[in-house]
Amino acid sequence: MKTYFIDTNIFLRFFLKDVPAQFVKAREFFEEAKRGECKIIVCQAVIFEIEFGLRKYYGLDKKDIVQMIGTILNMPYLETEDWQIFQEALVLYANKNWDLVDCFLTVKADQAKAEVLSFDKKIKK
Questions:
Q1: Residue 68: pLDDT over 70
Q2: Which of 2, 15, 97, 99 is 20 to 30 A from 37 via CA?
Q3: What are the distances in angstroms from CA 9 to CA 1, 62, 115?
Q4: Which pTM does this prediction carry?
Q5: Where are the domains of the chain?
């Protein structure tokens, strides 16, 4: 079975449907993975890049971003690095005025019984 590391632009085209031909192709990739014909791996960096792009370049609000990233995390046929950490971080992100990276670091540190080293006062609380 073929394995792919998926790029951010596949998700953006899938969610935004702004390039119809690429939306169709993205949907086909996901359907192949759903049928077990390929393995798709989602790296941490891709999740962060999706959030940044949707917020910064497309101007989406946090509610929509949370919904889209939640969709990715709930696709059982995708293998997302640090899936459980992202699940918890997404809840923090939805409920706090924090960046997704700060939420991720907080959850990851908690699981490791560690602390986040930062100058950001919000995280230190």
A1: yes
A2: 15
A3: 23, 19, 33
A4: 0.92
A5: 1-81, 83-125
